[in-house]
Amino acid sequence: MKDVLFSLFLVESWTEFWWVVFGLTAQMLFAGRMLVQWYATEKEKRSVVPVAFWWLSIVGGLMLFTYGIWRQDLVIILGQSLGIVVYSRNLWFIHYGQPDG
Questions:
Q1: Does 7 map to a domain?
Q2: 51-71 and 74-95 helices cross at what angle (nearest 10)?
Q3: Residue at 100 is within a domain
Q4: What string of DSSP letters covers 46-88?
Q5: What secondary structure letter does DSSP report for 11?
Q6: Is residue 24 included in any domain, yes or no?
Q7: Does residue 60 lie within any of the structural domains?
Q8: Which structural domain range is residue 69 located in?
Q9: Which residues of 33-42 are buried (b: 16+ CB within 10 A; e: fewer)?
Q10: Does residue 64 contact residue 30 with C-beta atoms inside 8 Å?
């Protein structure tokens, strides 16, 4: 079973295997944000970006950023860096930046 898993995931150790599982989980969370947005839009019959979209974006983005650091993959690191700032800023506006009234 170990040989099959290692071959399937292109890894040579259990440490690498679990990092790949971590990376795949991150990618599923990040991709899941689109399903959340699609569902909310269909439900409202207009374009909607729910708060859950931003939470999935930041959690998935941070996980992918971490995975990129482990892999030493500049493409992943740079690809997630700016997004994490944008997702954080949107969540800040949603939770703290609303004017009173």
A1: yes
A2: 150
A3: no
A4: S----HHHHHHHHHHHHHHHHHHHHHT-HHHHHHHHHHHHHHH
A5: -
A6: yes
A7: yes
A8: 2-95
A9: beebbeebee
A10: yes
**End-to-end alpha carbon distance in the chain:** 61
Provide long-range contacts, Cβ within 8 A and 24+ apart, for 27-36. 27/60, 27/64, 28/60, 29/56, 29/59, 29/60, 29/63, 30/56, 30/57, 30/60, 30/61, 30/63, 30/64, 31/60, 32/56, 32/60, 33/57, 33/60
Q: Over pLDDT 70: what percentage of the chain?
A: 96
Name the token pair of 85. 């700032």
Contacts of 15 (CB under 8 A, 6+ apart): none
Residues 14-30: tens digit of each pLDDT: 999 999 999 999 999 99
Q: What per-residue confidence (pLDDT) applies to 99?
A: 65
The domain tally of the chain equals 1
Token pair belonging to 57? 């974006």
